[in-house]
Automatic annotation (TrEMBL):
This is Peptidase 1. Signal peptide: none annotated. CDD domains: Peptidase_C1A. Residues 101-322 form the Peptidase C1A papain C-terminal domain. PANTHER family: CYSTEINE PROTEASE FAMILY C1-RELATED. It comes from the Eukaryota. It comes from Sarcoptes scabiei.
Amino acid sequence: MESKKFKSFLFQLIISAAIITRGYYFETTPSDAEENPRLSDVRYTGEPDDPDFKLPDSFIRKFKKDLMRELTRKCRKGFRQARLEHPELQFCEIPKVFQKLPKWFDLRNLEFVTPTRDNSTESKCKASWAFGPVASMESAWLESHDRIPSDSFFLSPQNLIDCAGYQGCDGGVDVIEAFNYMKHKGIVKEEFYKYRAKKHRCRERLRARRYKIRSYCAICPATIFTIKKFLFKYKTALTTVISVRNLTAFKHIDDKILSEDEGPRVQRRLVVNIVGWRHDDATDRDYWVVKNSWGKKWGMGGYGFVDAENNPLHILDHNYLVRVKEDVIPFENEPEDFE
């Protein structure tokens, strides 16, 4: 009998891990109210001759917290391995969302994103490291200031290309250089600092208003539910570093959902923005709405759709949030609470 109980315990442990992990990776909008019945079902799953065997609630809670700690450690290690860690980089506190997340959420509907840039010279000036953070900064300002028109509020990527760090038009995905410059010195509107698709001498003494961010942080753990919570809570486009293996397919993305990115090696790393998500009822799968800086001919008017569950392009792995107001508390050490 003890052997059967142990087998039942082990079986429930495996199922619990699968369901808890699925709650963070795959499900559309798992709320606390929805999760409890599922976990209850798991606790009472046993062999036919032992129907009363169950896992204690305290065990489930501890297992869930330990799992999230492990996912977070793995995520942070990924930032180090991808050489995206920086002495000033901090990680965001996971926001609490007390309502069911919608199946569809798109910052364009809220007018919290600016139109896509016609950066058709991307092949000559590889500066997505500047365009991605600028798009997030524009989004944060639109979310925080009601009177800013979303169709004409353009900040200057060229300001970053000329003045922030070492990357210029040579590629790279070191967005921390952009964030630090936007935080400490600020950037001007594009009308005062035009995009020229080439690195020039920095013009920091322009007599124009400089826009700044107050803070930025990296998002861990890298799960679907976590990314959704940040988008829904802060309503700001995320800065996202992706790795592209099939560059030809990515360049010619259309209205279809990109569900795979196969290739022998990474052909290019670049920076885009996640601005929302949608749910495909036909396949019962979620996908991200992604803003690029390659002009309106890319994708659907400059936006592409990327499958959420398969994690193509490693789109979940390296995401950042920027804020223009102090409402995000970064973790300084290991997080203690993942509820």
